[in-house]
Prior knowledge:
CATH superfamily of the largest domain: tm_1862 like domain
Helix content: 25-40%
Bound molecules: 5'-deoxyadenosine, iron/sulfur cluster
Strand order of the largest sheet: 2-1-3-4-5-6
Radius of gyration: 22 Å
Number of helices: 16
Strand content: 15-25%
CATH architecture of the largest domain: Alpha-Beta Horseshoe
Distance between the termini: 32 Å
Shape: globular
Amino acid sequence: MYNDNPTLKDLNARTIDETAQGQVYSEAVSALAPEPTGKQFYIESYGCQMNFSDSEIVASILGEAGYAPTRDLEGADLILINTCSIREKAEDTVRKRLRVFDKVKRRRPGTMVGVLGCMAERLKAKFLEEEKLVDLVVGPDAYRDLPGLVAGAEEGEKGVNVFLSREETYADINPLRLQSNGVTAFISIMRGCDNMCSFCVVPYTRGRERSRNAYSIVAEATDLFQRGFREVTLLGQNVDSYKWTHPETGERVTFAALLEMVAQVDPKLRIRFSTSHPKDITDEVLYTMRDHENICKYIHLPVQSGNSRILDLMNRTYDREWYRKKVDRIYEIMPDCAISSDIITGFCSETEEEHRDTLSMVDYARYTMSYMFFYSERPGTPAARKLTDDVPLEVKKRRLQEIIDLQTTISDERNRADIGTTFTVLIEGESKRSDADWKGRNTQNKMVIFPRLAGTAPGDYVSVTITDATSATLLGNQVS
Ligand code: 5AD
Ligand code: SF4
């Protein structure tokens, strides 16, 4: 999920705000029991789920080095911000937070501030010149080096490591679950991206694509299940191109095979995954989903644009027809499957007619929800080098609003169509609005709110009949 776009608030994206700040639970780290240094770190995360997942790896690495997590920014010895570069707005948010951290630092000399993630990778040592108060700049593949860099910085060195790796997957690191509800967790299955969509900075900030050892993924899922977790989301920039070869046996594991392996951990463990690329998702994956009840019937399948010429400029390697056929195939194999999307409006040279192709695609695919953005040029990307960002901002904003309005109508219709249906819902916790209600999700990833009954708890599967709906949520009553 992406947390830099206020327009998302209108949609089924409230979790973005809920998770926007990466405070951590201090009780979580006590299980690690390393030599405590008495020092505390505070970490905030921005951007996609991958970044939130990375922050849990960072927390684990720092925990091993004797640092305890804290939610108290003012009391922290080490303040970290895990950053996103996907749009200019995401970077602006980070710069604002750095101003706040600076004030804390002035009140508490000796506090160290570190920038992690995509912005660290994009700006590298330049960060230290631009943002004089940053002590550490650490890219996504260099987190193992963090304790050493912190120690060096304490001695007055500037701590920078932005080397990208072809191998690093952090396979052996058991993430420290931050902000955990104890029910759902992310598992990172691969890193980097080789797709080179022309608008996207990710291949430059996260490096080449590499897949993690399949057995370490299954072991992590098993461990989570044994600790009471009931849902895992397998994460990667492009999960359908997951491929891993066992170094000794030569066994090859595809994404479909990995899904099957994780689904077999326990029928009571739900599996989700994100993100799928329309060019790579195979029938084999769709059949595996269909054949396993515990693999959720939900696919995040970003279209980006509904127009073939724009898709070509974006280097998405599929056209409108191909995407429509994929959607048809998904509904053919799993009629009850939900599909969601990412959409960029106002890409270089996009005409009104081409914009209408995007609107008609939203209508065709009947997305349950979408993340919608207007194009933001990113320095160094192929689009920035070769194309002109020539759609005026007002036009971008108007087109974005049209897409949001249409998506909201469709989300509303799709949710209303669920009234009267009974779903299995995994309880995630108390509803934000009232502690008399539970919140949970059905297999299609729709949020369901319902009055809590005695004897039920987070982690339980319950049957809920839907009585009402908005574009963002289903409301219902537990029936068993
Ligand atoms: N401008 C706007 N949106 C972008 N995205 C990626 N790069 C850009 C950009 N330069 C969106 C895409 C992608 C999601 C992660 O962010 O829709 O799927
Ligand atoms: Fe960017 Fe494309 Fe990779 Fe997604 S798949 S992160 S849009 S390059």
